[in-house]
Amino acid sequence: MISTHELFSPKIDLTQIKQVKEFAGELIIKTDKEELRINAELIEQKELNSLRTELNQKCNLTY
Fold first, then answer.
1. Mean per-residue pLDDT, 33-45
2. Can you tell me the mean pLDDT for 33-46?
3. Which residues share a beta bridge with 21?
4. Which of 4, 22, 28, 53 could bridge across to 9 with cysteines, CB 3.0–4.6 Å?
5. Distance from C-alpha of 6 to C-alpha of 62, rounded to nearest angstrom
6. Which among 45, 47, 26 is positioned nearest to 37, based on CA atoms?
7. Rounded to 5 degrees, what angle do the CA atoms 21, 36, 7 make?
């Protein structure tokens, strides 16, 4: 499950992810019904690399 640290944060089940792309400093994660945008510039590079690896392993996605 991916979510942001906000009061009413959206949550996306990893099995539902259809597309992941990076554009204009954001990591955009899409399902059939939802879209989650994460400002990649606010994430430490080590953590961002871990997130990318996790998405690739769990979702079999490429960027």
1. 89
2. 89
3. 28
4. 4
5. 27
6. 26
7. 150
Give me the mean pLDDT over the 23-33 stretch: 90
Question: Which residue from 6, 7, 22, 8 is spatially nearest to 55, judged by alpha carbons?
Answer: 22
Instruction: Judge residue 27's burial from the number of C-beta atoms within 10 Å of its C-beta, 0-12 exposed, 13-18 middle, 19 or more buried.
Output: buried
For the chain, how far is it from start to end, CA to CA, in angstroms?
Answer: 19
* Global confidence as pTM: 0.72
Interior angle at CA 17, CA 44 and CA 56, nearest 5: 55
Q: Are 27 and 55 in contact (CB under 8 A)?
A: no
Strand partners, 3: 11
Give the dihedral of Cα atoms 3, 12, 37, 48; nearest 10 deg.
60
